[in-house]
Design brief:
Elements lengths: L1 H39 L15 H44 L13 H49 L6 H32 L8 E4 H11 L1 H6 L3 E6 L3 E4 L1 H17 L6 E8 L3 E8 L6 H6 L19 H11 L3 E6 L5 E8 L4
Parallel strand pairs: 2-4
Antiparallel strand pairs: 1-3, 4-5, 5-7, 6-7
Helix pairs in contact: 1-2, 2-3, 3-4, 4-9, 5-7, 7-9
EC number: 2.7.13.3
Pfam families: HAMP, HATPase_c, HisKA
GO molecular function, one term: kinase activity
Length: 356
Amino acid sequence: MIQRFKKRLSLTITLVLLVFGVLVTTFISILLIAILLHYLGVITFSESQNQPGNEESPLLGLFNLFIICIAIGTSLTAFLSKKALNPIRKVIASIHQVAAGDFSVKVDIKGIGELEELSESFNKMTQELASIETLRSDFINNFSHEFKTPIMSIRGFAKLLQENDLTEEERQEYLDIIVAESERLATLSSNVLTLAKYENLEIVVDQAPFRLDEQIRRTIILMEPKWSVKDLNVNLDLEEVTFVGNEEFIQQIWINLLDNAIKFSYPGGSIDIRLTKSDNEIRFMIQDEGVGMDEATIAHIFDKFFQGDASHAKKGNGLGLSLVKRIVDLCGGEIIVQSELGSGSIFTVLFYSKKG
């Protein structure tokens, strides 16, 4: 508050000093001109001004002096105002560049607190806009690629099926690929629509109390075909927790986190799942013994279509964790990631002040 007051005061002082400088300069100019004109005999300050025959000359002189003073004062004000408004003009010119799509523009204004703050905020804004534009471009490119790949695959194998010299084994193989790619495309479409729905959602409706531990157990059973095929051992430690929320909404969290843990686990590994409750929070933790992540991957793990290091890429579309993050945020919670390459990952979901 004090810092903000000082910045506002500095602008006030600057403007006051500007006006004061103009007035003082104008006054000094008037005084010097009056002295010069008196010296030249154009005007006189003697008592003869009061005589009836000499009234017009001093009045005319004062009028001329008044016109000269206005001209000088106006010129000084225009000159100094132009200097004072140069930073604002820079900002306006930069705004026009941003409006034209150039987000690389920067404004550097020094000297006045408010204008420095304006330039800093402007630069942060352009940086954010540039980042958003990059994300938008990446999203479109990745989105197009993710949809195009299965479509091209389906079309390619469908054309192969039109050939008459295929064996029954080849024909079945191609059909299996088409079915798998179709399922992949359907999953991607569903995830995109779900994420779009939740991104535009601001208030969670249809909230009711339900057993969170039982929901997690049902989710694990639902995902059994995926973790059993990799011979994974799923260890549970779930406290009885009643949670108030949208049950279908919350289940998306456990489905995507468990799917992610299964996807990146080594065959024969373990997945540990814990659910605990204290007075102030509900804590869910899922830990795998998979490939893990480096710091750069962790920093972008919740970005749309981000799938980390290509050498560790798995089948997926990079939308599951974005969906999880959005749901957790809407529920007023927090998600924390801990991971190291080769040492697995731990995802912790925290919900605060949920009474059951």
